[in-house]
UniProtKB/TrEMBL annotation:
<dbReference type="InterPro" id="IPR017850">
    <property type="entry name" value="Alkaline_phosphatase_core_sf"/>
</dbReference>
<dbReference type="GO" id="GO:0004065">
    <property type="term" value="F:arylsulfatase activity"/>
</dbReference>
<dbReference type="InterPro" id="IPR000917">
    <property type="entry name" value="Sulfatase_N"/>
</dbReference>
<keyword id="KW-0378">Hydrolase</keyword>
<protein>
    <submittedName>
        <fullName>Arylsulfatase</fullName>
        <ecNumber>3.1.6.1</ecNumber>
    </submittedName>
</protein>
<feature type="signal peptide">
    <location>
        <begin position="1"/>
        <end position="26"/>
    </location>
</feature>
<dbReference type="Pfam" id="PF00884">
    <property type="entry name" value="Sulfatase"/>
</dbReference>
<comment type="similarity">
    <text>Belongs to the sulfatase family.</text>
</comment>
<dbReference type="InterPro" id="IPR050738">
    <property type="entry name" value="Sulfatase"/>
</dbReference>
<keyword id="KW-0732">Signal</keyword>
<feature type="domain" description="Sulfatase N-terminal">
    <location>
        <begin position="30"/>
        <end position="439"/>
    </location>
</feature>
Length: 562
């Protein structure tokens, strides 16, 4: 007799299969590759005007499309929760972050390199939207695509689980997984790797995490081709780079060393000129002011400028390495004849991070060398990474939520669309609806006896193929730690934690410098009403008036950074 656990799993799988809308011909369905980097700013890469040489991403953009107003979830876990479900993070139990991590298994206690997982300890009584892991009664994108006939694979950072294996990638729809479950990892000595459900140790004298998760992804696709040649695949490649610790290989460090001695002020000005020439931002766009306490670059002593150059060289080297391995992945797809009908999406989980003051934290002598754990690159360079936009990771002004989004699909994007920059505002739920649209999958209405919430996303396929019509007729909503967004068309209502609402016309004020809330009070009230209704529907806590914010977060929300 089957155990209740096995029976539940079987019924859940049957529910997914029953609601799959299979296309008439599997050959028409593209392979789907979803690549996400971690803590990279909106404008770090070359095709967004950035300072990092990214020829492979630039080529994908030149032969595909770029979105210049696409939003993520402002931080690691909320973004990943939405990316795997198409629902708002509060609807799936990740309204803030996942629960804290601990070593997996007694034999790893106190050992460096231990595989870390999240634990549910002390989470009893927490409201569902903030429970701290991806709810197993919510169907995931890989589960739906798997039921639709796709091979499903993941390498890299998961950051959606607790200690129970039912929340791990291979129990949430992926056929194979290699990577880390927790929210970050050392790149030289990773903080715990798993292959499927089993802890594994880093191998090789020259181990580097970016290289390994890329190579594993290519190997999984090669195995897929050998075993399931007629079956399309879905690959989720979730890089830890360039999340701290800021660690890069010596060759990339040496490549970028000395390129940033002009400083963040001058480099921001030069970047804006490039962005205007590319058509990424309107001609009237101005730089957001350099926020306090970031000093004028020219006020720094030459030694400090040299140190700052070195940490930015390290950060950019990490992104350069990602681009190199994306090139290797593309080379593999071309060698197998799969590139033509493979859709590649590239994005970042949030804006550049600024959690360590204006100068970051690091040991200067270790930059570009083996070691250097605990390194962060600081708010000064994060301002350049997100330029010309305001704010950073955690926040919902443009610098926190705006991500580059590159879409490449030779078989589906018309040639006359190649290289175009799309101005429509979209967000993560749209990306999931796009994958389901392409793959012929459809969410079940019920799973494990619970109703599945209705998704708010729309497919991007029409925009990819040539439509310039707005994507949304109702506001795009995002919330994290009391930082909120309601965006409809060009109007963006936004606020910091414990601060009043602000209103911007993004088409004419890309950097959010001219608050119009006093000039258009009716528009602000309309969007605020819509936001409050959405927040009530999704179980979003009112952080400004919460009696005990520690119920939802393990530390106090960050306040205004202007």
């Amino acid at each position: 007799m089957r155990s209740p656990t096995i029976l539940t799993a079987v019924l859940a799988a049957m529910a997914l299969v029953m609601f799959v809308n299979r296309p008439t011909s599997a050959e028409d369905r593209p392979n789907i590759v979803l690549i996400m980097v971690d803590d990279m700013g909106w404008s770090n890469i070359g095709c967004y005007g950035g300072n990092v040489e990214t020829p492979n991403l630039d080529e994908l953009a030149a032969n595909g499309v770029r979105f210049n107003q696409f939003y993520n979830g402002a931080r690691c876990c909320p973004t990943r929760a939405t990316l795997m479900t198409g629902l708002h993070p509060h609807q799936v139990g990740v309204g803030h972050m996942v629960v804290k991590a601990k070593p997996y298994g007694e034999r790893w206690e106190g050992k460096r390199g231990a595989p870390y997982v999240q634990t549910t300890k002390d989470r009893e009584g927490i409201p569902y939207p903030y429970q701290g892991w991806l709810d197993t009664s919510i169907p995931t994108l890989p589960e739906i695509l798997k039921a639709a006939g796709y091979g499903t694979y993941m390498t890299g950072k998961w950051h959606l689980a607790n200690e129970k294996q039912e929340t791990w990638p291979t129990q949430r729809g992926f056929d194979r997984f290699f990577g880390h479950l927790a929210g970050g990892s050392d790149f030289w000595k990773p903080n715990g790797l798993f292959r499927d459900n089993d802890p594994v140790e880093a191998e090789g004298e020259r181990f580097y995490l970016t290289d390994t998760v890329s190579e594993e992804a290519i190997e999984l696709l090669a195995e897929h081709d050998q075993q399931n040649d007629e079956q399309p695949f879905f690959l989720y490649l979730a890089y830890n780079a360039p999340h701290f610790p800021i660690q890069c290989m010596p060759e990339e460090f040496n490549k970028y060393r000395g390129r940033f001695k002009k400083g963040w002020d001058k480099l921001r000005e030069e970047k804006l000129v490039r962005q205007k020439a590319m058509g990424l931002v309107p001609e009237n766009t101005k730089l957001s002011p350099r926020p306090q306490p970031i000093p004028d670059w020219e006020s720094l002593k030459s030694k400090k400028q040299d140190e700052m150059d070195a940490i930015m060289a390290t950060y950019c080297g990490m992104i350069d390495r990602v681009d190199q391995y994306i090139g290797k992945l593309v080379e593999h797809l071309r060698s197998t004849g799969e590139m033509q009908n493979t859709v590649i999406f590239f994005l970042s989980d949030n804006g550049a991070e600024a959690e360590s003051g204006p100068f970051g934290q690091f040991e200067f002598k270790k930059l570009g060398k083996y070691g250097g754990g605990g390194t962060k690159y600081g708010r000064g360079w994060a301002t350049l990474s997100n330029s010309p936009c305001r704010d950073y990771k955690h926040f919902t002004h443009q610098g926190g939520v705006q991500t580059p989004l590159i879409v490449h699909w030779p078989a589906g994007i018309p040639g006359n669309r190649n290289g175009q920059i799309l101005n429509q505002n979209g967000y993560l739920p749209d990306l999931v609806e796009t994958c389901l649209d392409l793959g012929g999958g459809q969410r079940p209405k019920m799973l494990k006896g619970k109703a599945v919430p209705t998704a708010d996303g729309v497919s991007l396929v029409a925009a990819m193929k040539g439509s310039d019509a707005p994507l949304h007729s109702t506001p795009v909503m995002i919330e994290h730690e009391g930082k909120c967004v309601a965006r409809l068309g060009s109007w963006k209502l936004v606020k910091h934690y414990n601060q009043p609402w602000e209103l911007y016309d993004i088409d004419h004020d890309f950097s959010e410098l001219n608050d119009l809330v006093a000039d258009y009070p009716e528009k602000a009230a309309e969007l605020e009403k819509a936001y409050n209704e959405w927040a009530e529907r999704c179980g979003v806590v009112d952080w400004d008036h919460a009696k005990d914010w520690s119920v939802y977060s393990n530390k106090k929300p960050k306040s205004n950074t202007k």
